[in-house]
Amino acid sequence: MFNQNKNTPAGYWLLTVGSYRILVHRRGSFAALALIAALIVTAGLSLVWGVEDLSLVSVFFNAAGLGDPMHVFLIQELRMPRLIAGLATGFALGVAGCLLQTLARNRLATPGIIGIDDGATAFAVASIVAVPTSLAPSALALSGAAVAAALAFGLSGAAGSRGYRFIVVGIGVGAMFGALTNFMLARAHIDSANLAYPWTVGSLNARPPEAVWVLMAGLLVCVPCAKYLARALNVLRFSDAVAQGLGINLRRVRIYTLVVTVILTALGVAVVGPVGLIALAAPEVARHLAGHQGVAVMGAGLAGALLMLVADWAGRSLFAPIEIPVGVIMAAVGGPYLLWILLRQPSRRTE
């Protein structure tokens, strides 16, 4: 139960569970509830509205396999899988962006900007058009993300996990993998290139269910790990000397955080493709709603899922029957947002 006494810090609730006591941040809790409520409303609208509008009551019956067979097919085979894929990928990319931004102490350090998205995309495309294998694109995407992260982390040096140095090296790594992707698509047969196209722009249309299940399994493992790392990352926002003085093993925390980020990014890209601006915007939304308290891992995940659903719904509804991929919608919105970040903090300290 929640208690409040004179020893409880301002802005917190004291949650007592048996012999355990947990401090719960009030504004962060309200922010999470608001994001969950917005997610529920957006998910309902995405199932109801589209080229074929349905009532909310019919959606429940159609989801259970009852009603008009065409509407049952629309909900069970098209909109529901798309909704699940959007929720999972948005949550994964939001958490990955939060972890990497906190690790690098820079709001621009996201998987898309430092090349992890491009590495995952290049390997996923290669599994289809260049060296077709029995491995699923999700497995190759994980390998590509790991290679890109290792290159960015290694080439930027021991201190490269901080500031603009890590970002600049990551941009170079991403450009290299982006060029490789374009080369493979240019040399591929037209049918293979069309099959690989969704992995280059970001789309939730007809996503492979196996990749979605793998992503959900990865979330079950990585999200608790991210929450566990958040406490150390919260200290890591200060200088290295302060973090070490508080008993934080910097090398171990950085490596573990990078591993979790790579897994979440790779599995997300294997489903939806490169929608890196979700990882840029979602943590900022979560920090703003929570009052910049701590490392908002869950808030960033919820905000990422919400942004993904809104962008996907807009892409398939605003210009219906023409569908705009979710990656294009996020680029149109996220591009000005990135410029706003750059112009708003021109004097940010670099290393």
TrEMBL record:
<dbReference type="InterPro" id="IPR000522">
    <property type="entry name" value="ABC_transptr_permease_BtuC"/>
</dbReference>
<feature type="transmembrane region" description="Helical">
    <location>
        <begin position="30"/>
        <end position="51"/>
    </location>
</feature>
<keyword id="KW-1133">Transmembrane helix</keyword>
<comment type="similarity">
    <text>Belongs to the binding-protein-dependent transport system permease family. FecCD subfamily.</text>
</comment>
<feature type="transmembrane region" description="Helical">
    <location>
        <begin position="83"/>
        <end position="100"/>
    </location>
</feature>
<feature type="transmembrane region" description="Helical">
    <location>
        <begin position="166"/>
        <end position="190"/>
    </location>
</feature>
<feature type="transmembrane region" description="Helical">
    <location>
        <begin position="112"/>
        <end position="133"/>
    </location>
</feature>
<dbReference type="GO" id="GO:0005886">
    <property type="term" value="C:plasma membrane"/>
</dbReference>
<feature type="transmembrane region" description="Helical">
    <location>
        <begin position="210"/>
        <end position="230"/>
    </location>
</feature>
<keyword id="KW-0472">Membrane</keyword>
<dbReference type="GO" id="GO:0022857">
    <property type="term" value="F:transmembrane transporter activity"/>
</dbReference>
<feature type="transmembrane region" description="Helical">
    <location>
        <begin position="294"/>
        <end position="314"/>
    </location>
</feature>
<keyword id="KW-0813">Transport</keyword>
<protein>
    <submittedName>
        <fullName>ABC transporter permease</fullName>
    </submittedName>
</protein>
<keyword id="KW-1003">Cell membrane</keyword>
<feature type="transmembrane region" description="Helical">
    <location>
        <begin position="326"/>
        <end position="343"/>
    </location>
</feature>
<dbReference type="GO" id="GO:0033214">
    <property type="term" value="P:siderophore-iron import into cell"/>
</dbReference>
<keyword id="KW-0812">Transmembrane</keyword>
<feature type="transmembrane region" description="Helical">
    <location>
        <begin position="139"/>
        <end position="159"/>
    </location>
</feature>
<dbReference type="Pfam" id="PF01032">
    <property type="entry name" value="FecCD"/>
</dbReference>
<feature type="transmembrane region" description="Helical">
    <location>
        <begin position="255"/>
        <end position="282"/>
    </location>
</feature>
<dbReference type="InterPro" id="IPR037294">
    <property type="entry name" value="ABC_BtuC-like"/>
</dbReference>
